[in-house]
């Protein structure tokens, strides 16, 4: 699957909640419900874990109240890396970086958990690279 970058720098294609990933493996729902709780402190019921990605027109989203998507669209940008107000308070609440997350949780994150629950959302490095290069990330 080709990389699919959200407006805030998350990677849909790596996210277990992304529509094609749920369709390929419905058990992703229970994995995510527990993983998000362990690392981010929120739990979404399994039946609510399904996302079409914020690039779609009128998509079904995990977080329909996301403040970043409408802001980026209203500004006519592709993602937050292009914004003159980078890093604004809306984006700041969505930033994920492994070192900060490990410090916050007080634990080292296993490679398996990193791939499943952190890497898809680890957006700070992606957005920084986009700001510097202007090229899509892998």
Order of helices and strands: HHHHHHH
Backbone CA Rg: 15 Å
Number of domains: 1
Mean pLDDT: 92
Strand fraction: under 5%
Number of helices: 7
How does this model look, in words?
This protein has 138 residues and is an all-alpha fold. The chain has one domain. It is built from seven helices and no strands. The longest helix has 13 residues. The model has no long low-confidence stretch (mean pLDDT 92).
Give a short summary of the structure.
The protein is an all-alpha fold and 138 residues long. 41% of the residues lie in helices and 0% in strands.
What attributes does this structure have?
138 residues, mainly alpha, 7 helices, 41% helix
Describe the secondary structure blueprint for this structure:
Elements: H1 19-24, H2 28-40, H3 68-74, H4 89-92, H5 98-105, H6 111-118, H7 123-133
Helix pairs in contact: 2-6
């Amino acid at each position: 699957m080709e990389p699919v970058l959200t407006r805030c720098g998350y990677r849909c294609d790596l996210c277990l909640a992304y529509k094609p990933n749920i369709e390929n493996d419905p058990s992703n729902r229970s994995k995510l419900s527990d993983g998000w709780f362990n690392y981010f402190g929120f739990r979404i019921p399994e039946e609510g874990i399904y996302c079409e990605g914020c690039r779609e027109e009128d998509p079904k989203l995990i977080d329909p109240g996301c403040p970043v998507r409408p802001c980026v669209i209203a500004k006519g940008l592709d993602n937050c890396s292009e914004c003159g107000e980078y890093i604004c308070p809306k984006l700041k609440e969505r930033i994920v970086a492994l070192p900060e997350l490990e410090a916050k949780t007080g634990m080292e994150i296993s490679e398996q958990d990193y791939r499943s629950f952190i890497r898809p959302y680890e957006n700070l490095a992606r957005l920084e690279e986009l700001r510097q290069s202007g090229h899509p990330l892998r």
